[in-house]
């Protein structure tokens, strides 16, 4: 009986040591092929070789986008509490409405949320560049006649090699962004890239 228990414990030990890390690897679900969008801020930050969280927004959004921004501020705080420096990762917010969302309008939006960290970038491009960029993520959106946009409510964790590794929900109604899971994945990818 004792030998049987030892064999089971050894089997579990082997499984944990050799198989568990492979089971928690994040899959590669896509790839960002190019970064043609421009940061509206004054920061000179390279998008290459950094772990990133990509989210999409438009400044006229009445609900999902602003509540997501608030949750992402909590994510930044959580990362700081876990000892992760802001120079180790990026939060990238991409405007879906570059016609309305001028550089000045996006800067005002950013200031309204008191976002000043150098690792939080707000990108915009032309309509064509934005459409092309969202295709990397299979992210769908459409601008209606009244200027309102309907859009997919997903965000994406991207590794330092620009591989899309995870997809998360934006804040929706009473449901907040799962910042604990995103922080865990960002930290995992940061450690993998070192």
Query: Cα-atom Rg, whole angstroms?
Result: 19 Å
Question: How much is the average pLDDT?
Answer: 86
**Shape assignment:** globular
Low-confidence stretches: 14-23
The profile of the biggest β sheet is: 7 strands, mixed
Total strands: 9
State the end-to-end CA separation: 45 Å
**How many separate helices?**
5
Helix content: 25-40%
Strand order of the largest sheet: 1-9-8-3-4-5-2
Structural class designation = alpha+beta
Secondary-structure element series: HEEEHEHEHEEEEH
* Proportion of beta-strand residues: 15-25%
What can you see in these coordinates?
There is one protein chain. This protein has 194 residues and is α+β, with helices and mostly antiparallel strands. 38% of the residues lie in helices and 21% in strands. The chain is built from 5 helices and 9 strands. The chain has a 7-stranded mixed beta sheet. Strands 6-7 form a two-stranded antiparallel ribbon. Helix 2 (64-81) links the parallel strand 3 and strand 4. The longest helix has 22 residues, at 2-23. Mean pLDDT is 86; it is low at 14-23.
Provide keyphrases for this structure.
alpha+beta, single chain, seven-stranded mixed beta sheet, two-stranded antiparallel sheet
Describe what is shown at a glance.
The chain is an alpha+beta fold and 194 residues long.
Topology:
Elements (H helix, E strand, L loop, with lengths): L1 H22 L6 E2 L6 E2 L11 E7 L6 H18 L7 E7 L7 H10 L7 E5 L2 H9 L5 E3 L5 E3 L2 E5 L4 E7 L9 H15 L1
Parallel strand pairs: 3-4, 4-5
Antiparallel strand pairs: 1-9, 2-5, 3-8, 6-7, 8-9
Helix pairs in contact: 2-5
